Amino acid sequence: MLALDPATHCRHALHASDRRWPQTNCWTDLWIEIVAALGHDPHAMLGFTVMQDHEGDQATFFKVQTEDMERLYGLRLLELSIFDRFETHVVEQCRRGRIVVVEVDGHFLPDTLGVSYRTTHPKTTIGVTRIDPAARRLDYFHNDGFFALDGEDYDGLFGRADDPVDPAKLPPYCEFVKIPAQAPNLDLRAEAVALLVRHLRRRPASNPFAAWAADFPAHARDLATRPPEWFHTYAFALPRQYGANFELLASHLRWLGDRGETGLEPAAEAAEAIAETAKVFQFKLARAMARKKFDGLVEMIEAMAADWERVMAALDAKYLGRSVRDAA
What we know:
The chain is α+β, with helices and mostly antiparallel strands.
C-alpha cells in the first residue's frame, strides 16, 4: 500500500468510464479499489448484489459484506475506538500497516471538486493509507480513486494540532482493516459461488421493482413539489442504486462464467438490462422534474421488475434447483 501514488493510481476496470455506472456508492466503490490495490480480484465479492431490496423511500444502499471480504481475502474490518485525538489514532493504525476507514465531511475532500468540495457537507467514507502530521498530508481512497489532501483540508478533517479535544463533540465512526501477511489459499471461484448461493437464499421475498412501481405515483406527487435540483437526491437514492447494483451483479456473473460456471448468461443479460433501463430512467426523470410530468416512468420500473424476475429465475434454476454445498 505504501507504494501507491495518487498521481499514478489507475482505477479498477469495474470503474471504467465506459460502464453504465462508473460510480456506485462511496462504500462499495471504496472497497473495490482497496481490494484491487491489495492484489485481489474484487469481482469475486459481488454476489451480495442479489440481496438488494426496495425500502419504500429508497433502494437498499448496497454494501460489500465484510464477512465476505474476510472469507475471500482474509481482510478483517474492526471498529476503532476513538478516545484521543482522531489524528493520533489514524497515525497509530497507519504505522501498523492498516487502512483506516472513516466517515468524514466531503466538504474537505478535494477529489469532489465541482460536487461538494468547499460547498456542501455530505457524509462520505474514505480509506486512509498514509498520514504525515508534520506535513499535514493524507493519502486516501475515496469513491473510485486514490487521492491526497493537505493544508486547510487536513485541518478541516482533524482540526489544528493546538486545538483542545472537545469532550462534547461526537467522534467520527471509524474502523480499520487488518491485512493478513498472506491471503487465504482457496479456490476463489468456488468460494464466490458459495457466497452467491448464500445471498441468493437471503434475497427479497418479493420483487423490489414491483414494490417501487407501486410506490412511484406517491413519489411523483412529492417530486412535483420539489425544485428541479431535487432530481439529484432522488436519483442517487433509487435509480442509481438499482442500476449500479445490477451492473455489478452482471459483472460478477460474467466473471464466474469466464472461470467455468455455465448457464449464467441469461441472468447476466437481464441484470444488464436493469442497469441500462435505470440509466435511461434517470435521464427521463430529469426531464420529468423540469416539466412536472412523470408519464411513462412507472412502465420503465415495471420493465425492470420483469428483468428482475428473469435474473432470479435463471439463478434459481442453476443454483437452488440442485444440491449446493452449504455456504454458511
